[in-house]
Write a structure and sequence with these properties.
Elements lengths: L4 H11 L9 H7 L2 E6 L7 E6 L2 E7 L4 H17 L6 E3 L2 E6 L1 H5 L3 H14 L2 H10 L7 H11 L3 H10 L2 H4 L2 H5 L1
Parallel strand pairs: 1-3
Antiparallel strand pairs: 2-3, 2-5, 4-5
Amino acid sequence: MRVRPERAAVNLLKELGIVEPPVDVFEIARKLGIKVEMAELGPDCSGMLVRGETGAVIGVHYAHHPNRQRFSVAHEIGHYRLHEGGTYVDRGTTTLRFRSSNSNSGSDVEEREANQFAAAVLMPASWVRRELEKYSFDLGDDQALRELCSSFQVSTQAMMYRLTNLRILEDESPAHRTQ
């Protein structure tokens, strides 16, 4: 039975004893025996996972914003943990799985799962909810949103997707806050 991305991410954080943001995905990769290398990957590739006989390597686009690089590493760790031996493109003794413009649309199941895993590793649901409870948080307050993003070291876009997927944006509507 396949492990759901959210559960796999929570399990990984628990396994490694990570209990608060920001999550150091480069350290996670190291602990999993995955080498991370910065490289020029072209305009349509943020990151890639290469598996070979000597181990795994995650390539990350060196010119991207550090928050984007962190998400890319988490995304590739998601492929590593969720899709081992799956539908990778074989090239001799090496397996490649590229993160490309297709992954942004979420059209491929494995890409969606890797994105879900990355979001859950970087912004675990319980941590996000805990952070929101600490403050009188108003999602319309750009400064508060920037501070939340800063504490998790993620982009505003990634945080907004996460809040939406966790259905927190619905919970934070003015009608809910006044009741």
